[in-house]
């Protein structure tokens, strides 16, 4: 069974899949900001990533420490097979729904 | 200095390694965005990772005291000669305590574990049944109907492994609270009496002990939830 995901969870998963294998907090936030045009709070992103880990949608591993981070390691995220399946199912549903929708108002 | 202390504070809620990664992300971005952004990012992150714990703790503090008074008044009502005889002899007083504990569990679980958590949904369903049953305790036809619905819900939950676990956690949490709140407060009061302290320090001592008691309740609830629902579900997957 595919676990129910919220809108922000979907967006974070898409960002992770796009950024892999370099998907970590800052790069995911930057990808989301670029796509939506809105700033993403580090706390909101972090709690979502933790929730996705609990749902077994992502796994994480620690990278090497860097100087710009004050000697702290990056935590890289990787989307699991279940996450990819969930994204595929969402994409399929959206495509089916949007197929018959006319968004150009004058021609509808 | 700020990042070190924030790392320690974050580690209280998410563990040392995750706190390190989060602070590292903020520091990396703050190098580009400035110190004002850093301050907001730390504050926002702290609120995001701690609000469930803080709100759950405050709710448990308020409702725990209410549960103690409800428990004692219900038991006194069933013994008191001035209470209506029909109510004294009915199961409604005991069920009202259980419904109250189910409502507390629902609210606490909704805040601490989220509204879509299995425990929250199960507790909410049974809390509604309990509350309606108590409010219509003299209408035998409603009682029969609602009891049948509650039994059907239980059977439905027992059919799946996740449902059985949610039911198990709910029963343990309600049973635990039934004993925990009155016994905990009696213990706090007993210790205070033994120490024979003067009034202001007695008040402070009781308040601190109560806060500690609530902390034990929150810790036990989180442990029970993790042990039965999170870890076991992950093993099943």
Query: How confident is the prediction overall: mean pLDDT of chain A?
Result: 86
The number of E-state strands of chain B comes to 0
Number of helices of chain A: 4
Mean pLDDT of chain B: 81
Q: What's the β-strand tally of chain A?
A: 2
**Biggest interface: chains and residue counts?**
A-B, 23 and 26 residues
Q: Numbering strands along the chain, what is their spatial order in the largest sheet of chain A?
A: 1-2
Overall 3D form of chain B: flat
Structural class of chain A, by secondary structure, is alpha+beta
**Main sheet overview of chain A:** 2 strands, antiparallel
Rg of chain B over CA atoms, rounded to whole Å, is 22 Å
Helix content of chain B: over 70%
- Number of continuous helical runs of chain B: 9
Which overall shape of chain A is indicated by the principal axes computed on the Cα atoms? elongated
State the distance separating the first and last CA atoms of chain B: 42 Å
Give the helices and strands of chain A as they follow along the chain.
Answer: HHHEEH
């Amino acid at each position: 069974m595919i676990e129910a995901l919220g809108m922000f969870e979907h967006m974070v998963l898409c960002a992770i899949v796009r950024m892999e294998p370099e998907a970590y907090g800052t790069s995911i936030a930057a990808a989301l900001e670029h796509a939506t045009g809105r700033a993403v709070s580090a706390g909101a992103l972090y709690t979502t990533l933790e929730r996705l880990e609990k749902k077994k949608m992502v796994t994480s591993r620690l990278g090497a420490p860097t100087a710009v981070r004050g000697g702290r390691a990056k935590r890289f995220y990787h989307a699991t097979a279940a996450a990819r399946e969930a994204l595929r199912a969402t994409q399929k549903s959206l495509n089916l729904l949007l197929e018959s929708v006319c968004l150009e108002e004058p021609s509808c | 200095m700020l990042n070190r202390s924030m790392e320690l504070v974050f580690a209280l809620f998410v563990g040392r390694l995750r706190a390190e990664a989060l602070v590292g992300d903020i520091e990396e971005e703050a190098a580009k965005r400035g110190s004002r952004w850093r301050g907001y990012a730390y504050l926002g992150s702290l609120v995001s990772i701690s609000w469930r714990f803080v709100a759950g703790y405050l709710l448990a503090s308020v409702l725990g005291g209410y549960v103690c008074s409800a428990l004692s008044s219900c038991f006194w009502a069933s013994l008191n000669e001035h209470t209506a005889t029909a109510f004294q002899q009915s199961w409604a007083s005991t069920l009202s305590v259980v419904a109250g504990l189910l409502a507390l569990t629902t609210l606490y679980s909704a805040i601490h574990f989220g509204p879509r958590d299995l425990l929250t949904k199960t507790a909410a369903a049974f809390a509604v049944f309990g509350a309606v049953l108590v409010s219509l305790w003299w209408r035998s036809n409603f009682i029969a109907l609602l009891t049948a619905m509650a039994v059907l819900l239980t059977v439905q939950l027992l059919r799946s492994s996740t449902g059985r676990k949610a039911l198990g956690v709910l029963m343990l949490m309600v049973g635990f609270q039934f004993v925990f709140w009155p016994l905990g407060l009696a213990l706090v009061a007993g210790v205070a009496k033994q120490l024979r302290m003067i009034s202001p320090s007695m008040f402070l001592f009781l308040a601190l002990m109560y806060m500690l008691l609530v902390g034990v309740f929150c810790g036990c609830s989180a442990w029970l939830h993790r042990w039965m629902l999170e870890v076991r579900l992950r093993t099943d997957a």
